[in-house]
Amino acid sequence: MPxxxxxxxxxxxxxxxxxxxxxxxxGVGLAAMGGACDWRWPHAKAVPEIDRPEGVTPGxxxxxxxxxxxxxxxxxxxxxxxxGRPIKMEGLKKHPLSQGGLCARGQATLLDLYDSGRLxxxxxxxxxxxxxxWDTMAVAKLKALHxxxxxxxxxxxxxxxxxxxxxxxxxAYPSVKxxxxxxxxxxxxxxxxxxxxxxxxxxxxxxxxAKVIVAFDADFLGTWISPVEFAADWAKGxxxxxxxxxxxxxxxxxxxxxxxxxNADLRVPIKPSEEYSTISSVxxxxxxxxxxxxxxxxxxxxxxxxxxxxxxAQILAQHKKESLVVSxxxxxxxxxLVNWMNSVLGNYGNTLDIQKPSxxxxxxxxxxxxxxxxxxxxxxxxxxxxxxxxxxxxxLGEKLAKALAKTEWTVSLSNRLDETSSHVSFVxxxxxxxxxxxxxxxxxxxxxxxxxxxxxxxNSRPAMETLLSLAGKTQSAYxxxxxxxxxxxxxxxxxxxxxxxxxxxxxxxxxxxxxxxxLSHSSFSSVSLLGLKNSRPQTKNGEFEFVSYxxxxxxxxxxxxxxxxxxxxxxxxxxxxxxxxxxSPADAKRLGITEGRxxxxxxxxxxxxxxxxxxxxxxxxxxxxxLGYGRITADDIAANYPITKIKFFPIEIAxxxxxxxxxxxxxxxxSVAAGSEMHPLAKIQRYDFQKDPYLQESRHVVREETxxxxxxxxxxxxxxxxxxxGDGLWSKHDYPGHKWTMSVDLNRCSGCxxxxxxxxAENNIPTVGxxxxxxSRDMYWLRIDRxxxxxxxxxxxxPTVAFQPMTxxxxxxAPCETVCPVAATTHSSEGINMQTYNRCVGTRYCExxxxxxxxxxxxxxxxxxxxxxxxxxxxxxxxxxxxxxEKCNFCYQRIRDAEITAQIExxxxxxxxxxxxxxxxxxxxxxxxxxxxxxxxxxAAKAVxxxxxxxxxxxxxxxxxxxxxxxxxxxx
Amino acid sequence: xxxxxxxxEILRPPLVEGGKxxxxxxxxxxxxxxxxxxxxxxxxxxxxxxALLWGVIMVTDLIxxxxxxxxxxxxxxxxxxxxxxxxxVGIGHAGTLISAILxxxxxxxxxxxxxxxxxxxxxxxxxxxxxxxxxxxxxxxxLYWLFPYYxxxxxxxxxxxxxxxxxxxxxxxxxxxxxxxFWYMGLLPDLATxxxxxxxxxxxxxxxxxxxxxxxxxxxxxxHEKASLLLAGLAxxxxxxxxxxxxxxxxxxxxxxxxxxxxxxxxxxxxxFSGFAMVLTLLTLSREFLGFKDYITLKHIDAMCKVxxxxxxxxxxAYATEALIGWYSANTFERFFFINSAxxxxxxxxxxxxxxxxxxxxxxxxxKIRRTPAVVFVISIFINIxxxxxxxxxxxxxxHRDFLTSSWTMYxxxxxDWGLFIGLFGLFFTCFLLFSRSLxxxxxxEIKHVLSSEKHGGKQHA
Lengths: 972, 462
What we know:
Strand content of chain B: under 5%
Structural class of chain A: alpha/beta
CATH superfamily of chain B: Formate dehydrogenase/DMSO reductase domain
Helix content of chain B: over 70%
CATH class of the domain at 704-724 and 734-968 in chain A: Alpha Beta
Number of domains of chain B: 1
Largest interface: A-B, 69 and 63 residues
CATH architecture of the domain at 704-724 and 734-968 in chain A: 2-Layer Sandwich
CATH topology of the domain at 704-724 and 734-968 in chain A: Alpha-Beta Plaits
Strand content of chain A: 15-25%
Strand order of the largest sheet of chain A: 5-4-16-15-14-6-7
Oligomer: heterodimer
Distance between the termini of chain A: 49 Å
Number of helices of chain A: 28
CATH architecture of chain B: Up-down Bundle
Shape of chain B: globular
CATH class of chain B: Mainly Alpha
Number of strands of chain B: 0
Radius of gyration of chain B: 23 Å
């Protein structure tokens, strides 16, 4: 149903003027105008399509299921295509693994497609060539190298068809050997399983079945292996059940502050060198409780309190078969102990599966090191990198780069001239996943399709086709994938008897499921427990232990040219655009380092210099820095924002101070020297606590309680009330139709920021660049606030962390509405606080008066002079001019879309039919959206739950977003 | 100084010193208009002209590039511009007070200063009015939307009468109109005198035209008096209403430190306080450099110092009340606002303000100080600084740490912020200096009136 106001206007229009009258008047007017002046429209030809593609209506979006190519986890994705351009990536609701969400990086792969820095043609010796020439020259080279050792280097490819293409290639050239590595490696887990279970596999973790999770440095909600799937599963146990409430318990030991650690019930900071000792201590305790032989672990000492160790062991022992121990360590002994614990707890087959193991990590660190050694010694005659950039993302990258110069024939299949492809002679311009056919099988039995959403923007070719044509098979990727499915997938499934039908339904749903055979493996071999030792030595005096990690925004760095991800702040540190060296407050104080001080980190041979960041919760004696940064020319992205067409006076453009930390991936101890320069970080949040620094009073914007308290409160009924405010001066708004409302479950929210990117993509939100972020001028309509316990003047060393998605609360008594002098922000009859860009003159009074500070002002013209990147813009949402205010409007374009559809179909809108971009993308389903006037809706139920509250409701602004109190599973 | 007695002549020192005749008064007051200006004037004019030019350049940058050239951000979206706005509107108030309220109260001593005080009001309101215009994101749209007119071609939406900013538009434009009229009305007889006194034909023609054919007949005088009184009556409520409306920009908002019922009287007193300080600044300078010592006497300075001291105490009381109520409200946000003012990142602004506005005026208890123009000048500068900071503190300290701690941040003015700040002073002083050379700075007719009443034993004192 359209809003009432509009109906009134419609009827008003209808009475005065008929359509024909209007046309007559217009005709006369136009004729008069034409006669009076010699003014013409610019010439443009609109040619109708002779054969309109079936099912395509200009202006109407098409949705197409595909697979996300952000990382090897290969989540299900839904691509929104509007007039031939993909404009949004969303999660695929029914996908058995990712379950409907899509992470920030996955959604941002869309912007990678429209990266104007992509390669536009294949190159030979840095010169443009045609594909035919490229193929001829490459095949000639390959033939010339016949018999000589050639290597094909890839990352893990959970893509059956691509692997089949590689197999074709390898069989055509038998002297080529395939080397697999992963920048963010899980090699030690695979190796440990080789030792303990006789198969080099990565378990498929099932967090949904785990009532107790004990994790050691595994950021499974942020970056570890398959974060969307894990987060969705993890969240299932995080909501207290009704009755006598229960929820999962999550204990996290880690040597930095990760997103996952921040969400744990108990977070214990430990040094990396203590990881082995800590896990051994838990193992010993566990063995004693369970009465099984204590594994021989040698001498152990850890700074983790024996209380926390006891607790971990006890609670694990109480939850046999429904607990899970995970570790992200690269230490084989640690991983063996993890396997032992999972094994004695009977978790194999329940919370982790190695019969149908995950296929998203197959890299072998040892094999890759061996390859670099061979390269350096000059043994290798040729090397082909397929969508891999080891010069950047491997610790031995520099060595490899030098070796490449000496290698006879070097090839890279890459989408840009990156660190590796700029060192090779043959570069094949690789297509983006949204331009290619393909498939992925992250777990046996779940196979997804990759289908193109657009024709290649440039003269590029998918890797599959390049490899096939080198193998002498000129076959399109489409034909190859289809034939692969016909021969390999179709026979395994039972749902369909007709391949065409099977193929079509798979394309429609985006995936196919079949019963994969279980992989046999041996039971836990206790022999593997022999010779366990701590491979990470203590550091010398004055040195720091070093931790490098994949950050939530840039992950391994292959998307470092993506402005959305560059600007996306780290969920915990809230710093964007740069990496930094993290110090514990005690260490920082000792060294006299403050935030923004440049520090040089050196491992004796090499060093890097980036700004320092002081992080509560960091263990003392440890410094951490993020991978994924420090890529060549990535600085240009920062320098590009904000763009103004004519600069009258110069606008500050901040240089990025980043470093590539991959060379230090295996560095254990480093020395740190504070520099003299200061380069303040681009922090999106400047104050970290809910308590103010002087009165130490909490603002209770995030409400928290323990499980016990919750049990008590739940018995007492709802905690949210409308009594906070009187009737007020103004008459109440009437919401005769819908009243749109959102609910945010703080127990489910992990703070992963998927919603932030979803919002940015949907609503054409500009990125503003480092200097602007530093001036607190980020443009996010939706942000995730992160609060530590304590206050600035009274900060605990290891605080608890709370995340809170914060966006326009669509207040019923909106303070912004009354103060706008030109009525540019008004209240809709559906409870939405509307912003009329056309009317806005930019007094910014509304922004001042908003208690939630969710309004954003266009300080400059943020529009981009980038014809390629502009293709990403959503035509349903206005691109704002400078000088106007903007903010969340609950994705009003989506609401209207659903309303129109419902009206055409003459029905009411179903609950859950309208999904805002943020709600859609949330991997943990922390957000829900609906009509609170519909008493059967999910949001109506949540609004009266015992956990419901509204932020700052004591102000009487009557917000429309209901938060669900965060319940921690700790003893009160 | 309300009722007069026959002995007042003995008790009261004369309002004009030096035993002037009417002719001398005309000569003295017309002198700056007719003679070549002294070197000091040229110096002052070049300094203020440069400041104005710098302001124009900065404002060009501002409009060309965007409001982002200022140091504002997502949390603090008002800064220098609105501070300047409130400051300059406040300055204007003293002028209206002196010319209108003191006229109604028949305060004779006002005659020497009312002309320049009124001019100051007009220039100050001009400076003030520029700020809300320039601070808009889309100034080219703002003018169009803010002044509603009929027929409204843009559909059912009209301006939002609930917004204090709209009230501002009305309040300030009314204020400017009335002040301008009042000032011009007072100028009429003097323009005629100036025309008569002028040597050149062109000059005479201009003044004659501007005086709207003033004949000096009893009828004209009577009508002039009536009109002045009426306009004074109209202007008097404006002294209270304009700054009350301005204060509602804050009082009607939700921001801690803004949302306060004390604001209207607090702002009005503050305005008078700062206005008197500015009048003192200008008069101590002009009596020194334009040779008006016989007209703007120490007695005038003394009287104004007393008003300043009185208003400073009201302002001080308001600060104390605000802090007390902040504590008494037991509201976290309110309490935090005051603690944060005193010890937070902007504490130096807060304490400078207290020092300038509450401590420095206390020196005015001493008659000796009140009658030493150099010291009064220094004190007036302190008060000007303090009152500018007061507005800055309310706006920026209120905003930078409001409800949600996650959005707390700092506001740092950029060179463009300072550019506007300097430019406005440039505009103000340029206007004032031009005024001092082109129009009679002291109301000749009124001075003569006072002179005559004094000569006749003050019997006409009402």
